[in-house]
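Anyone up for a design puzzle?
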């Protein structure tokens, strides 16, 4: 007679396939396989006039008719022009906002650039931010996802319902087009604060791309005291909270300060640049190179333009080397550095750093007020150096703090590139 056997499971074998084994530099197994993303949106350019979008939601069953996807009705050029327009609106309405008197004459300077807390201008700030919400919603629904055919209509409904219905998802936009994703918005039901419709407010957001694959490297070092660098233009030393940022890094990390390009380029030329955090506090600007596409560069005290090609050239000797090491999280606190590329095929500094091995890059999409930039950096680094939260978690938390407490949406302009799960690992 057959008999059913009783089985007691005293070991969980599946965990052995879902967790990374301990390694020499991580004897306690603190570095584990990162959790699956909640949502991945893939935007691919098949030709100048052909864009395809698809979405993969973790934990959801794939429908019988396949993964939600559609061909867009707009071209890459149209979307990139819309992105440039959105950035310029944020710049003109916030960074360069200037009140006018009854006769239309300017009153004073740029109050939104001269304060981090906009409570003294709450009516104007809320009105202008409300307009930016509408612009973000218009970009997402009426430009990027425009169309009336069944496929695009179904995909639009699926994606917008998911983005508006959930909160605090970890969302990766794996896209050939580098767009200001955190500044886009969904429309919320009546009674909810429309500012909470910004994607960067609702969710952890990162941009990735096809060229963002880092080289193979040796294991990361895990140490008690993090190693950091401050790469800066010394003329900015007295701006806002800049001195407090220096004090924070100097007190809690082993800090290297570079004020000129030569030491920075020498460090980049070395096979091992073993820093946990690289912080850039300097100017960023587009350089006119005589072509229709100016390139982005940052400058330290000596003014030498440091761009993607220069950084890649300095590390080109170590391409493919398993002995080379370059894996910092990079905070590019300079204007426009969150624009990883204005269009496919063009390189920007953030993308080059990730390609060389950086664990992630964070920077603003637009011209950013120095006062706000210094405040944002201090808040971000205070959280990041604790080692408990990821870059994606911190970026979302700061958006909510500045929007809700200070009526200031500028934290939404800071974009995470390939670093949503970046976290400082220490033995402390």
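Challenge accepted. My sequence:
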């Amino acid at each position: 007679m057959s008999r059913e056997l009783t089985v007691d499971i005293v070991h969980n074998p599946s965990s052995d396939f879902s967790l990374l084994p301990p390694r020499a530099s991580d004897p306690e197994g603190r570095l584990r396989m990162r959790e699956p993303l909640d949502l991945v949106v893939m935007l691919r350019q098949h030709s100048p006039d052909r864009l395809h979008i698809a979405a993969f939601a973790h934990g959801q069953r794939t429908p019988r008719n396949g993964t939600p996807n559609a061909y867009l009705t707009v071209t890459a050029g149209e979307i990139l022009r819309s992105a440039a327009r959105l950035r310029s609106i944020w710049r003109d309405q916030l960074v360069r906002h200037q009140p006018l008197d009854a006769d239309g004459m300017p009153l004073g300077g740029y109050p939104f650039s001269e304060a981090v807390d906009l409570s003294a201008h709450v009516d104007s700030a809320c009105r202008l931010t409300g307009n930016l919400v509408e612009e973000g919603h218009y970009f997402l629904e009426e430009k990027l996802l425009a169309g009336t055919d069944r496929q695009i209509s179904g995909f639009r409904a699926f994606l917008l319902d998911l983005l508006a219905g959930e909160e605090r998802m970890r969302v990766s936009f794996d896209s050939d087009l580098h767009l200001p994703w955190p500044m886009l918005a969904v429309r919320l039901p009546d009674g909810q604060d429309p500012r909470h419709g910004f994607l960067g407010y609702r969710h952890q957001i990162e941009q990735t791309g096809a060229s963002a694959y880092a080289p193979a490297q040796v294991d990361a070092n895990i140490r008690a005291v993090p190693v950091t660098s401050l790469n800066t233009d010394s003329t900015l030393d007295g701006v806002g909270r800049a001195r407090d940022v220096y004090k924070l890094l100097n007190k809690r990390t082993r800090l290297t300060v570079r004020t000129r390009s030569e030491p920075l380029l020498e460090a980049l030329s070395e096979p091992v640049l073993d820093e946990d955090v690289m912080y850039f506090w300097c100017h960023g600007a587009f350089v006119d190179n005589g072509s229709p596409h100016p390139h982005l560069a940052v400058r330290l005290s000596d003014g030498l333009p440091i761009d993607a090609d220069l950084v890649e050239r300095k590390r080109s000797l170590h391409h493919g080397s398993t002995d080379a090491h370059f894996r910092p999280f990079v905070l590019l606190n300079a204007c426009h550095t969150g624009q990883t590329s204005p269009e496919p095929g063009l390189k920007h500094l953030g993308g080059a750093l990730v390609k060389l091995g950086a664990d992630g890059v964070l920077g603003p999409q637009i011209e950013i007020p120095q006062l706000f930039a210094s405040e944002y950096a201090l808040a971000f680094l205070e959280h990041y150096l604790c080692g408990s939260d990821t870059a994606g978690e911190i970026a979302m938390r700061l958006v909510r703090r500045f929007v809700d407490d200070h009526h200031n949406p500028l934290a939404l302009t800071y974009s995470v590139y390939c670093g949503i799960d970046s976290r400082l690992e220490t033995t402390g």
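A detail worth pointing out: Residues 119 and 406 are 6 Å apart (CA to CA).
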